[in-house]
TrEMBL record:
This is Extensin-like C-terminal domain-containing protein. Residues 60-72, 119-128 have a biased composition (Pro residues). Residues 35-135 are annotated as: Disordered. It comes from Methylobacterium fujisawaense. Residues 150-323 form the Extensin-like C-terminal domain. Residues 1-34 form the signal peptide. Keywords: Signal. It comes from the Bacteria. Residues 82-116 have a biased composition (Basic and acidic residues).
Amino acid sequence: MPGRTLSIRPPSVMRAGVALALALGLLAADPVGAAETPAASVPTPPPLPPERPETLKPPIAEPAPPTPPARPPELKPAVAEPAKEPVKDPGREKAFESAKEGPKEGSKDFAKEASKPEIPTPPPAPPERPPELSGGAALALKVSPPDDTACRTRLKRLGVDFEPLAPIAEGQCTAPLPLKVTKFADGVALPQGATLTCRAAEALARWVTEVQVEAERTLKHPLTALELGGSYVCRGQNHDIDAKLSEHAFANAADIMGFAFAGRASIPVKAMPDGSEEAQFLGAVRTKACGFFRTVLGPGSNAAHANHLHVDQRERNAGHRLCE
Ligand SMILES: [Zn+2]
């Protein structure tokens, strides 16, 4: 037998193999049997790696991960409560499933989650939203409305009666800082009132003073009221729902249906006989409106404006105006 082994490997290699095997304790139990086994059946174990120096050895015991501090008793849910709930409550299981994904802030599950015993620390409560940032006010902040303070001061100096309204947000129809305008200088009334941006209200107020001048000059009767067909309306241009949103949808426009005077019949906005004082008055105030508004449309512009003057403050490229 040894002869066969020797014929396969040189004795020195054989001895080294046995020595290694012995060192590993593999042959201790049956050295004879091992000797009889051909070397092929006892593979040479790889040399042992050198002993690691003490300095490089990892600490014997890994430090245990820190355990969360024990919950104070006042935060623990009532001991009896979980037992009361049936184990197979599908609602609770469903709630648990959704809780794994993280409940929505403020949801019922959120509060439920916070009181569950398996969660050691409840997530911190979100900071309280300041009241001035909620609802419409928050929306208004998002669109960064212009500061209307200076405009409102001018409006007061112009003798306009107005009060601020809540921000308007009806789908795409928006007005972050609308005003309810009820009266102009000289007691010129707006019987229907008008919901307008400060800028549109200011333009209207300045124009009304010019209308008053024209009434005294052409008609010899003072203007007492402006009859409006509408100011803020959430709609498309020319009442076409498919059209681009009208400036009325931004409280940036007004439709003037007619003018009322002291001691004289009102003048409705419509085509008047050439040469009449009504035609002269309407023509003059319409031309003046082009100095205050970016858009002025009326009888003759198109069929939609045959019975009123539409005025608005639509922004156009390079400050272009539409005065027809
Ligand atoms: Zn209009």
